[in-house]
Amino acid sequence: MGMVFYYNAFFNLNTERHFDGKIVNSLSWYSVQRYAEHYELDFNESEIFHFLIEKMDNAYCEEIHKKIK
Question: DSSP code of 19?
Answer without folding.
Answer: B
